[in-house]
């Protein structure tokens, strides 16, 4: 749970993120810088229920906490200048680091990176989508499978100066149907590590306890059951899954 002041103290807006699909504001609560997304500013979607994105963001934070990998910054529901919405602690990124990149197709690094796909840019040049090959990013990929993240763009991965990577923008998660769209396909088919399997086990166990109880206020019973099934399926397979279904395996745009 967030500190009481983060829920009750005044949220003052300081700016707006105009590139976001839904209304997204920068603000402050005392000395804490936050991102605020009011439910009233959510655009209707054909495949997700209206007015549920903020709750899904909070659910993603709760699952992240049970994984124990500090993927999602602290996120909670509270009132604000445009009504109830999601608040999340702002993270100051390192502008000199990037976990996901587009590079010339003939210039893919030989080590430390994974290639996801190859295509043409707007000028017809061949480019490759690559991402870091690091334990912290692998853990985010596991998290995305479990929460059924339909929108893991490159810019939804925040590169911190100490090498940590945070994931943000988790409104399109927890659908009961398969929706996984991500730029983190570099480990397709690779076996999961013992640490990754232990994280999945913690979430599975949590669904029978406090995590499951907390999620009932944020997700439907069908969505929680689908979450449990994804954990069981991934644990049984013991490896990163491949894309399936007819929908795109990557979000658009990629960044």
Instruction: Kindly provide the radius of gyration, computed on alpha-carbon positions and rounded to a whole number of angstroms.
Output: 18 Å
Number of helices: 6
Morphology: globular
Structural class: alpha+beta
Low-confidence stretches: none
Strand order of the largest sheet: 1-2-3-5-4
Keywords:
10 strands, alpha+beta, 255 residues, 2 domains, single chain, five-stranded antiparallel beta sheet
Briefly, what is this?
This protein is α+β, with helices and mostly antiparallel strands. The chain has helices spanning 4-8, 53-67, 135-147, 194-207, 210-215, 221-237, and strands at residues 12-16, 25-29, 32-38, 75-78, 85-89, 100-104, 113-120, 126-132, 157-159, 165-167.
Description:
By secondary structure, the chain is an alpha+beta fold. It folds into two domains: 4-95 and 134-237, no CATH class; 100-131, no CATH class. The chain is 27% helix and 20% strand. The strands form three sheets. A five-stranded antiparallel beta sheet has the order 1-2-3-5-4. Strands 6-8-7 form a three-stranded antiparallel beta sheet, with no helix packed on it. Strands 9-10 form a two-stranded antiparallel ribbon. Strand 9 and strand 10 form a beta hairpin. Helix 4 runs antiparallel to helix 6.
